[in-house]
Design goal:
single chain, 307 residues, 2 domains, 10 helices, 46% helix, elongated
C-alpha cells in the first residue's frame, strides 16, 4: 500500500520550489531604498536610448508621458563588476571593459557614486571619455560626472618630484615686447601641473630668437621633454595680446590643442573634443583631459630609455 506524503512536507517543498528561485534572483536587489537622482537619470537615459526617434509633432506628448512614467526602485547590479570599491584602483581601471560600451561604463559610474566610492566612480566616468566611442549625450554625462567628482577626489600624485618633468616653452624674436610674459608662462605651467593631478611637473622657459619681430607680435608655444634629445609636441603659433588675461587664455587654449593633437597622434586613446568658442580652457584642461590621458601624454614625450 502506497504511503501518502504528509501535507506539511508538501507545503514546505512547494514553498521552497517558489522561494529559492525568487531568493536567487532578488538577493542582490534593494527594494527599500528610493532611487537616487543619478539612478533616475540613468533609467531615463537607458529608456530614451531604446525608443525610436519620433517626429516633432509627437515630441511634447512623448515627454509628458516620460515625465509620468513610474521609476522602479529595484536596483540590479551593473553589468561591469566594480571590484572591491574600498580598495585603491590603478589609474587605468576599467579600461579593459571599454569594449562593453559607454552605456555600461555610465551604469557602473552611477552605481559607484551611489555607493560613495567616488575615486572609482571618477575612473569609470573618465573611461567613457578616453576609451569609448561615446555619443554626445554620453560624453555630456561623463563630463558632468567628472566635474562633480574631481573636486572631491585627492590629486593622483602630491609629490612634485614624482611627476613627469616637461617644459612649457615659448619662442619669440628678441625684438618682440614681452613684459610680464615670464610670470604669465610660469603661471600657465603651474595650471597644467595642477590640472594633470600632479602626474606632470611643468616648468616654463622662454627662448629669444635672432629673427625679425612680426607685426602684430607672434609667439610659438610647444611642450617638450626636459632631456638632451627632447621630444616635442610641435609648435603652435599665436598672437601676443596686450591684455595679460587674454594672453593667459590664449596660452592655455594653445596648450590644450597641443595635448589633444599629441594624444591623437601618439596614443590609441580617444582625444579630447576641440574647445568651443565660449569654453574656459583652464576648466577644460582639468575636466576634458582625463588623468590617464595626462599620464600617457607625458610618457609619449619621454625618450624610451628614460623613466
Amino acid at each position: 500500500m502506497a504511503r501518502r506524503v504528509p501535507i506539511p512536507v508538501v507545503l514546505l517543498l512547494g514553498a521552497a520550489a517558489i522561494g529559492v528561485p525568487w531568493w536567487q534572483g532578488t538577493k542582490d536587489m534593494d527594494f527599500m531604498t528610493p532611487p537616487s537622482d543619478l539612478r533616475l537619470e540613468l533609467v531615463r537615459y537607458q529608456a530614451s536610448a531604446k525608443l525610436p526617434k519620433q517626429a516633432s509633432l509627437f515630441s511634447a506628448e512623448s515627454k509628458a508621458k516620460q515625465a509620468k512614467a513610474f521609476q522602479s526602485p529595484i536596483k540590479a547590479p551593473p553589468v561591469i563588476h566594480p571590484g572591491d570599491i574600498h580598495a585603491p584602483a590603478e589609474i587605468d581601471a576599467y579600461r579593459e571593459h571599454a569594449g562593453e560600451g559607454a552605456a555600461a561604463l555610465i551604469e557602473l559610474a552611477v552605481h559607484l557614486e551611489e555607493q560613495s566610492a567616488n575615486p572609482r566612480a571618477l575612473l569609470a566616468w573618465e573611461r567613457v571619455l578616453d576609451s569609448c566611442q561615446a555619443d554626445e549625450s554620453q560624453q555630456a554625462a561623463a563630463l558632468a560626472g567628472i566635474k562633480r567628482l574631481r573636486p572631491l577626489v585627492a590629486a593622483w600624485n602630491i609629490d612634485p618630484a614624482a611627476g613627469i618633468p616637461l617644459i612649457l616653452e615659448v619662442s619669440l624674436s628678441k625684438g618682440t615686447p614681452a613684459e610680464g610674459l615670464d610670470e604669465l608662462l610660469a603661471g600657465c605651467a603651474g595650471i597644467l601641473t595642477k590640472k594633470s593631478s600632479g602626474l606632470l611637473t611643468l616648468t616654463s622657459r622662454i627662448e629669444k630668437l635672432e629673427t625679425k619681430a612680426a607685426t602684430p607680435p607672434l609667439l610659438s608655444l610647444q611642450i617638450l621633454d626636459d632631456g638632451p634629445s627632447a621630444t616635442s609636441t610641435g609648435l603652435i603659433e599665436l598672437p601676443l595680446a596686450t591684455d595679460p588675461e587674454r594672453t593667459r587664455r590664449e596660452l592655455l587654449a594653445a596648450a590644450y590643442k597641443l595635448v589633444a593633437s599629441q594624444l591623437a597622434a601618439a596614443t590609441d586613446f580617444t582625444p579630447p573634443a576641440p574647445l568651443d568658442a565660449g569654453d574656459d580652457p583652464a576648466a577644460a584642461l582639468g575636466f576634458s583631459i582625463t588623468r590617464l590621458c595626462w599620464k600617457e601624454f607625458g610618457k609619449s614625450l619621454r625618450a624610451a630609455d628614460r623613466p
